[in-house]
Amino acid sequence: MVSRTNFRRCMAEGWDGVVPVCEAQQCPSINVPKDVNVMGDAEEATFGNVVRFSCKSNNHIMKGAREIYCDENGDWKGLEAGNPKCEVVKCEPPRIENGFVPGDIKEYNERDILNFECNPQYKRAQDLPSICTKTRDRAEWIPTPECQEIKCELTLPPLQGTTYEPAHRSRFSPGEKVTVTCEERYWIGTTRTRSVETTCKKDGQWSVRPVCQEVTCSRPQDRPLSYWERSWPDETKKLGDTVWYTCRSGYKKKDDVTRATCTRDGWEPNPLCQAITGCPTTSFDRRLKVWLHGDKLYFRCEDGYKPLTKGWWGEATCVDGVWSGVENCIEEQKCREAPEIPNGEGTLGSTERHGQTQDMIFIHCNEGYSAEIEEITCRDGRWDLNGSLDDICKSNQGNCSLPPKVKNAVITTRYRKQYPSGAEVTYQCRDKYTIEGNATIKCTAGKWKELNIQCILYCEKLVDESQTMDFTAEKEKYMTGEIIEYQCKNREGIIGNATCQHGKWDKPIECEEKCRVPETPAALTITTDVTDDQMKKGQHLTFACKNSNHIIKGNATLECLENGQWSNPLPICRAAKQCRTPPRLSDGRTKTWTRNTYRHNEKVEYVCDRDYGMEGGPFKTCVDGDWVGEMRCRSELHFPFVAHKVFKYVLSKQTASGGTLEPV
To answer: Averaged over 452-477, what is the pLDDT?
Structure first.
């Protein structure tokens, strides 16, 4: 009340003339710092008036009361939080459950990155670094630094073609296992695998990615292909799909197939096309030994085996890329096909004796011939003839059986089961063997002439590839024990004798100076493929450190010189120096949190702040204690593509005075 009295008296004439006067209660004036923005009357506020406070600078945050009002008693309500003031954006070290902040930093500036660590068996909840950030009127760590228990996760329900066991769990601890099974047309790990057991690792990752993928085949890029059937718009085929194709001239489809089939191993057949200019020499029965002589291929079986149909050797001819006449090998205790019986015929059959099936040949002789026996039995891999085939259906002429074997030789005469009297066969030695004795023998009255043939290994004409010897080689072939005298060109007075020993030249004196491969220290390793303890002039040795955290000092590559010495001393390995915390980048920062030390060859990635672009980079590498790598962050206004942007001024919908610049 403004008046001195708060009552009136009732007089005879009526109420007295003193009228009480009331007015609104007023609150005291509020003084605030200059950097605080005041919205409302803080100096002459009356009951019910509200005053709000905010910071004038965007780089500050409000502390204390943000809003107060004047109550009926003339007191300000809302000042319990303290008088309003503005402070620079600061963040305090947070309390992190299952984690901690190393060091003793008490506060952080705006845009500082928080370096924190998680306790064992926990990991960061997010990969992004936590940055001190102003959000409205307070400072916060964005994103919130959190540690979560390390778990491996599965997507439920599983993707198509994938099933899990156990089937209804999605989170697993390190060491726990899950069996992943793929449907018929899917694979995991390798295209031939449909089921694997994957283990949750300590870093929260699966040892095998638990997702099945469908078996597919893309269009092959084989050069011999001439035409490939198109399947628009997608040329990727699935398991079991087939495609018609053709091969270029000079090639043919493998195994005479008509279409290619998509399998778990890719397209079959593999290869799709093969050359028809020659025949392969590596696709025979592993029990078959073969060697080429001209356009013929001669073969025989390994010890313990024999050809299915004839003899102990044979020959084949290459026809359209396929060897014609190559036989399979069978075990020696098994009998071959029924032999051809002169002047008669044998029919293959079997009989049951003592509870076992026994192979038999039943004999039928031609007219004018009589059979000495009616059947032939298979015993220990041979047909039990009890004589020769000629004796079964009697003939008056004496024939010879198969010619005898000669080691390292084949017979070049056409194969025959029986050789009449007077027939001859000729032997041919393998490559690098020469024949000794008469190469031809003759059948006389059912017997072969006494055999006196040998195939002897010889040495080819001596060749000096390094051009360090003087000698005279008069022949193209030298036999074991023959000698050639030579003199070293670069070692005056040195004379040696090269002796032919079982197909190779033995030279006790080497004319060419060689470098001995040195013994390496434990920390050093040789990366060159070394097959001998000596190396020739011009050859190189390359070294590397076994420990990736070590660096090599000296020349990592040495050359063998003409004098038999290495071009430089052996290099050494020493531990590389560690690097300190990476340097700061103006208008930028590291993509992840930083540490106090880094090992040799470790990298740190940088990113620029918003509205800044990077030149160079983005990595710095620790190299023997120094950070190597150059980059800088420049305002995007300096980049050519920004200079071409056009901006317009957009007025606020609420006021006519405020506005923003927006690109158009």
So the answer is: 79
Amino acid identity, residue 361?
I
Of 98, 133, 149, the one marking the end of a domain is: 149
Going by the DSSP 8-state scheme, the letter that residue 103 receives in this structure is S
Q: Would you say residue 35 lies in a domain? A: no
In a domain, 271, yes or no: yes
Please provide the size of the chain in residues: 664
Number of Cβ within 10 Å of residue 296's Cβ equals 16
Q: Which residue has the tokens 């918003």?
A: 610
Q: Give domain status of residue 34, yes or no.
A: no
Q: Could you tell me if 474 and 524 lie in one domain?
A: no
Minimal CA–CA distance to 23: which of 74, 90, 82? 74
pLDDT, tens digit, for every residue of 552-601? 888 889 998 877 788 999 999 988 899 999 999 999 999 999 999 998 88
> Helices then strands (H, E): number in the chain?
1, 69
- State pLDDT tens for residues 313-353: 888 887 766 778 788 888 877 887 878 888 888 888 888 87
Can you name the residues that pair with 7 across neighbouring β-strands? none
pLDDT of residue 368: 57
Q: Which long-range contacts (CB under 8 A, 24 or more apart) does 516-523 make?
A: 517/541, 518/566, 518/570, 520/570, 521/570, 521/572, 521/573, 522/546, 523/547, 523/550, 523/572, 523/573
Question: What are the structure tokens assigned to 603, written together?
Answer: 């990298």
Left (φ > 0), alpha (ψ -120 to 50) or beta: where does 411 sit?
A: beta
Beta carbons within 8 Å of 168's beta carbon, 6+ residues apart: 156
Residue 356 in tokens: 């076992």
User: With the C-alpha atoms ordered 56, 62, 64, 66, is the resulting torsion angle positive or negative?
Assistant: positive
Q: Which of 71, 74, 32, 70 is nearest to 53 (CA)?
A: 32
In which domain, by residue range, is 226 found? 216-275
What's the rounded mean pLDDT across residues 481-504? 81
Same domain, 643 and 564: no
Q: Number of folded domains in the chain?
A: 7
- Asked if residue 124 lies in contact with residue 175, where contact means CB atoms within 8 angstroms, the answer is no
Q: Tens digits of per-residue pLDDT, 605-627?
A: 999 998 899 998 899 999 889 99
Q: Which residue has the tokens 């043939």?
A: 453
In order of 134, 194, 228, 256, the CA distances from 241 in angstroms are 60, 19, 14, 18
How far apart CA 638 and CA 641 sit, in angstroms, is 9
Rounded CA-CA distance 173/200 in Å is: 7
Tokens of 151: 């778990």
Q: Is 609 found in the same domain as 657?
A: yes
Name the residue type at position 281.
T
pTM listed for this prediction: 0.32
Q: Which of 235, 236, 240, 268 is nearest to 254 (CA)?
A: 268
DSSP string, 237-297: EETT-EEEEEE-TTEEEGGG-SEEEEETTEEESSSSEEE-SS--SS-S-TTEEEEEETTEE
pLDDT at 39: 92
Q: For the residues 109-132, what does the mean pLDDT come to?
A: 90
User: How far is Cα 100 from Cα 98, in angstroms, rounded to an integer?
Assistant: 7
Does residue 326 belong to any structural domain of this protein?
Answer: no
Task: Give the sheet arrangement for strand 454-460, strand by strand.
Answer: 433-436, 454-460, 477-479
pLDDT value at residue 261: 93
Q: What is the pLDDT of residue 661?
A: 39
Report how far residue 627's alpha carbon sits from residue 621's, in angstroms, rounded to the nearest whole number. 5
